[in-house]
Design brief:
Layout (H helix, E strand, L loop, with lengths): L4 H15 L3 H23 L12 H10 L4
């Protein structure tokens, strides 16, 4: 699992913000999601926090996380 759970939490919060007409908050959450993706990928590139480095490397994580549509 590693740090991937935070992306799901941010997605859930963004859904909440959109459903409750909080566009500024939703935008900030999108920025936070992008920052989390970048930070997690950087940690994996540095060899920190990768739970399965052979099959879940930093480039794969970043590509998958960015390709997955936000809420």
């Amino acid at each position: 699992m590693g740090n991937n759970w935070i992306i799901d939490v941010l997605d859930d919060l963004q859904v909440f913000a959109r459903l409750n007409d909080l566009p500024s908050f939703a935008g900030q959450l999108e920025a936070a999601r992008a920052a989390a993706i970048d930070d997690i990928a950087a940690r994996r590139r540095a060899g920190q926090g990768a739970t399965h480095p052979a099959r879940d490397d930093a480039a794969t994580f970043a590509a998958n996380a960015r390709a997955r549509p936000g809420p």
